[in-house]
Design a protein that fits this description.
Layout lengths: L7 H11 L4 H11 L2 H18 L4 H8 L3 H13 L3 H15 L1
Helix pairs in contact: 3-4, 3-5
Length: about 100
């Protein structure tokens, strides 16, 4: 974990996110805390990561998401050399989808 990231303010934000109870609360909170473009950028990166995990090509990802190759490359670097956060969440979402 990046020590520069671990601050009382970041922990307070993460605790706030962890307190959200459902999708409606997520929309309310994130619409207040993020600009539309920030939220769309986050969701774009998440979709890029999902597509990279599905072994899609950079060209396919760029066409579907509108992400630049620089963004795709950054997300790919996170998937390969990061903290496995994307994989942890994708694994959990996969388990949730299997239960429904």
């Amino acid at each position: 974990m990046n020590n520069k990231l671990k601050t009382p303010e970041v922990e307070q934000l993460f605790n706030a996110i962890l307190s959200l109870k459902d999708m409606s609360e997520c929309y309310e909170f994130f619409e207040d805390i993020c600009t539309i473009n920030e939220l769309l950028s986050l969701s774009q990166r998440f979709e890029v990561a999902k597509m990279l995990r599905e072994h899609k090509t950079y060209l396919d990802i760029a066409e579907k998401t509108g992400a630049s190759t620089a963004t795709i490359s950054r997300v790919n670097r996170s998937l390969n050399y990061g903290n496995d956060g994307y994989d942890m969440v994708f694994d959990r979402l996969h388990l949730l989808n299997d239960e429904e």
